Amino acid sequence: MIKKTDPYPHISTKEIYILRNALNSTHEGFVTIDQNHKIFFFNEAAQKIFGYRAEDVLGRDLDTIMTPECSKKHRMAVKHYLETKDTKHPEHIAHSKEMTIVRKDGTKIPVNISFSSFEYKGITYFTAVITNITVIKDLQSQVVRTERLAALGKVVAEIVHEIQNPLMIIGGFAQQLLREHKNDNDTKKLEIITDEIKRLENLLKTIRAHYTPPAMVYKKVDLNMLLRDVFFEGEEVCKQKGIVTRLDLNNGHCYVESDTDKLKQVLLNLLKNAIEAMDNGGELYIGTRMIRGDKVEIIVSDTGCGIPDEIKDLIFDPFFTTKADGTGLGLGICKQIIENHRGGNLLVESEENKGTTFKVQLPLYKE
Ligand code: ADP
Ligand code: MG
User: Fold this and answer.
1) Residue to mutate (ligand 1; options 321, 329, 338, 358; most atoms within 8 A of CB)
2) Which ligand has the nearest atom to the CA of 315?
3) CATH code of the domain in which 242 resides
4) What distance in angstroms lies between residue 157's CA and the mean position of ligand 1's atoms?
């Protein structure tokens, strides 16, 4: 520890008051503990980051705001530091570190923490300065995702092109033979060939759509009408599968600035996923609600199998699927289309064995 002369010998109660308020009004969380692991200072940003009120943690052990595993590691680091601080090679607590913290309500957020220490009247105090880096992390992963998609996109477009042409020729000949053949046995085989080729052609189309940025034609779209259409298309399948359906639309008109076909594609995709998640029946809900005056949120909710926490981050990745006959391309396309809108957002909330809610946020149409 570096001992310096005090540059603030004049500090008074007034200045302490000012400093305390300065610390309380920063965006960085400040948590100071003493060498016995007791929390000594917990500024307002720290209260927001961790979700605890200062009066509930001050004077208490750091365990209060940490997971047992994290707290154990921290205690060891403090111990090592105290044991070695007067030696030639003191064992410093890591200077700056990216970590995930678990908030009071159980949610996790990524943070950057830097540590410092100082001694006062023989007691060592440790301060952690904590920055919430959720936004930065989100941006980083978005950039990585975009770059990866762009690179992959080129390769995929070439492969798709190379497969599509011979496939078309095979399909054409198969259909020609089908028309000419009257023998039952051959007809069956030829039908299988043409069906499989159609399936492959559709798959290639989906793959290509995934890797080519959607060309959007923005117009004034009557959302209630579109949702009624989508709902109608899903209703019959739902009936057959014992799924109760509920449509809850805004009164009056609701217009969004979007591309009708593309938006319909997104909603049908979400609907299909919801239905596939409810093999043993359940409830499907489609509704809208206004948010922040200039946006509307479309909610597609099911009471199906839900999405386990371990795969929540993967469901938008291309080719990620948990279904035997899935392509894993639906949600990726949905996300691309929605994020193409100014201020568009596709969010998901899900609990395993309880159900899943997808929220599509779109800008309202402005005259
Ligand atoms: P696919 O439907 O072909 O598997 P998607 O991209 O549409 O591909 O979905 C990816 C994965 O996300 C699914 O395989 C499934 O595991 C999960 N998923 C998507 N929607 C839901 C939902 N409503 N309920 C449960 N899991 C879902
Ligand atoms: Mg799907």
Assistant:
1) 321
2) 1
3) 3.30.565.10
4) 24
Nearest CA to ligand 1 atom 13: 321
CA of 316 to the centre of ligand 1 (A): 9
Q: How far is CA 15 from the centre of its chain?
A: 44
Enclosing domain of residue 206: 137-211
**Dist. CA 213–CA 218, nearest whole Å:** 15
Give the H or E element holding residue 10. none
Is 3 inside a domain boundary?
no
In this structure, how many other beta carbons lie within 10 angstroms of the beta carbon of residue 143? 10
> Does 83 reside within a domain?
yes
**Residue pLDDT, tens place only, 212-223:** 767 889 999 999
pLDDT score recorded for residue 180: 86
For residue 328, being part of any structural domain is answered with yes
- Which is nearest to 223 in space by CA: 197, 192, 253? 253
Atom of ligand 1 nearest to the CA of 306: 25
Q: Collect the ranges in the chain with pLDDT lower than 50.
A: none
pLDDT at site 7: 65
Q: Are residues 322 and 255 located together in one domain of the fold? A: yes
Helix axes 134-180, 184-211, angle to 10 degrees: 150
pTM: 0.58
Please tell me the distance between residue 32's alpha carbon and the centre of ligand 1 in angstroms.
44
Q: Are residues 123 and 144 in the same domain?
A: no
**Which of 279, 313, 315, when mutated, tests ligand 1's pocket best, judged by the most ligand atoms within 8 Å of its CB?**
315
Domains contained in the chain, number: 3
Among candidate residues 111, 132, 153, the one where a domain is terminated: 132
Which pLDDT belongs to residue 94?
Answer: 64
Q: What is the pLDDT of residue 223?
A: 96
Same domain, 74 and 189: no
